[in-house]
Write a structure and sequence with these properties.
Helix content: 25-40%
Number of helices: 11
Keywords: Membrane, Signal-anchor, Transmembrane, Transmembrane helix
Protein name: Trichome birefringence-like N-terminal domain-containing protein
Strand order of the largest sheet: 4-5-6-3-9-12-13
Subcellular location: Membrane
Family: Belongs to the PC-esterase family. TBL subfamily.
Main location: membrane
Order of helices and strands: HHHHEEHEHEEEEEHEEEHEHEHH
Amino acid sequence: MKVYAMNQLPFGSKHHALRKNTPAIALTVTLTLVLFTVFPLCYPLLGYPLYLLKSFSKSQISISSYVAVKYGSIYENESEQKCDIFTGEWIPNPHAPYYTNTTCWAIHEHQNCMKYGRPDTGFMKWRWRPDGCELPVFNPAQFLEIVRGKSMAFVGDSVGRNQMQSLICLLSRVEYPIDVSYTPDENFKRWRYPSYNFTIATFWTPHLVKAEEADAYGPTHTGLFNLYLDEFDEGWTTQIEEFDYVIINAGHWFYRPCVYYENRQVVGCRFCLLENVTDLPMYFGYRKAFRTAFRALNSLENYKGITFLRTFAPSHFENGEWNKGGDCVRRRPFRSNETSLEGVNFELYMTQLEEFKLAEKEGKRRGLRFRLLDTTQAMLLRPDGHPSIYGHWPHENVTLYNDCVHWCLPGPIDTWNDFLLEMLKMEGVRSYEEKLDLSDRKMKLR
């Protein structure tokens, strides 16, 4: 449509004024057209990351568009949309790493890739650059000042513990923590930084809900688990109220065979191979588990902390499944246009987003804050950062498969704590703005 054609519209007595303001109108129309052309490209689906578009089929667009319209953006306000730190590329960083396996004792043996002979070091020398802005490299002193007098819990599986160990190593440049665990059980550890009165803890709960191993062998030799999808796992839910920050995650354990229970009745299973038990998609149990975990947090009477959902980190098995010769031997990150989130990874990610938005809405009614620590795109692009065979000595008689699920330390998982620090700084800005807003309201009421 030509802009000057608008001058021919029958606007009655205002026609003369319209002719005088034609340049302004033309500019307005042009800007409007640009806005509606560019905006969807920047924020498709009202807030879901741009990279998801690469993997959408028509049905997926329909489903996720519905989710976006129903639950809204993953961002709370416009200022956060100006720079999505979770969408970007990996770029070379010759200054990394910022610790080594000899300077940090917290690295789990199976992620200590340099100790066990990994020959290349390039996987450590990358940093994440968001589209349109910068993500500062982790500053341990700044982090410890922000969390002074506070506590942080990592709730979930061993990948969550992987992040906690990364955090300990990054902070080791300033201070090492002391062990203040209540139990010798390695699945429930607590560490305290005396100079900052800061405590971190890990609660190992790979299914997030009440669970028990029904058969150690199971159909795939990885065990068969009973999951009580509507029941809290009291191993962590009874101890979490005191924490200021809770980082929750789950994912890879839901691939294992499971029998699903609700109201103590079997409602189906995931590849359990039991007679007269309906086989359900993995997403069924995954959704219900997150819903119950979020319900637990929202129901705690004294919990006032901030809940971070750390999103699913895809594995990178190639040339076979995890137990059929699959391995991860790439030596460089992908570019964002070289791969896409699809299939099971896509479904797990979207399931998390949907349940997160529901929990966030409920949490607001109680004055609780939920934040999305979205690591999915960044880790989708890092097939080079896994231990693979470098989690034990070659001559050791172990039954471990190639590890393309966890992350070498140091390595790409350190970036999760770059994200975390940036989000904590953002919380400080929010808190300051809220105080200013409250002060302004009080002044107006005087």
